[in-house]
Amino acid sequence: MRKLKLQVQLSVDGFVAGANGELDWTVTADEKYWQFINEVADSSDTLLLGRKMAADFVYHFEAFKPGSPRFAFARKMVNIPKVIFTKTLDKPIGENTTLAKGNLADEIATLKNKNGKDILVYGGAGFVSSLVAGGHIDEFLFFVNPVMINKGMRIFDLLDKRQKLSLISATPYECGVTVLHYKLDNDQ
User: Fold this and answer.
1) Are 93 and 58 spatial neighbours (Cβ–Cβ below 8 Å)?
2) Nearest of 11, 107, 10 to residue 50 by alpha carbon
3) Which of 44, 58, 60, 127 suits a disulfide with 94, CB 3.0-4.6 Å?
């Protein structure tokens, strides 16, 4: 069975975005950090996105031009199949996207049971909150940025019980970001 991995930027005080979705507080990545981001992306063959984040994400990466910085990564994000979870969209947005409109638990179970590499979810906050609360995330990659933003969007507020995690690794990068890699401890 494939694993569902969450890759998310976090402030030290636990926010994933500013109050209006701002990400201007995230740190610019150094080369080793970019190498790790690429390795995580390469370990997956499917991306999951919530509807609110999907348009910005898809069109952002589709807009990269050859020769621009990170063009190879942008092409990877365009080429990888993306599943947009939505109740309101009637047709996919951008290249290599499909819609998931059914029950969240059923849709996730179907995706996990398909053959292939792992599944990666980037966001948005509301969608990720539902995945976390439902216990659907198998591994967490918290990219902890050295900043406190005081107000913003959180992803843990829907939890109605504790979810114990086991540390896989903790890796600091020169840019100041520390990646905390956990797996869900199923022996709770």
Assistant:
1) yes
2) 107
3) 58
Token pair of 122 as six digits: 């980037």
Alpha-carbon distance 30 to 173, whole Å? 7
Beta strands 118-123; 4-11: pairing state:
parallel
Place of tokens 């694993």: 3
Residues 6+ apart with CB under 8 A from 83: 46, 47, 48, 49, 97, 98, 99, 100, 107, 111
Given the structure tokens 């900043």, which residue do they identify? Answer: 147
List pLDDT tens digits, range 5-19: 999 999 999 999 999
Q: How far apart are CA 16 and CA 21, in angstroms?
A: 8
- CATH superfamily, domain 16-119+135-161, is Dihydrofolate Reductase, subunit A (3.40.430.10)
Question: CA-CA distance, 54 to 7, in Å (whole number)?
Answer: 15
In angstroms, the CA 101 to CA 118 distance is 21
Dmax (CA) of the chain? 49
**What does the pLDDT look like over 122-132, one tens digit per residue?**
988 999 999 99
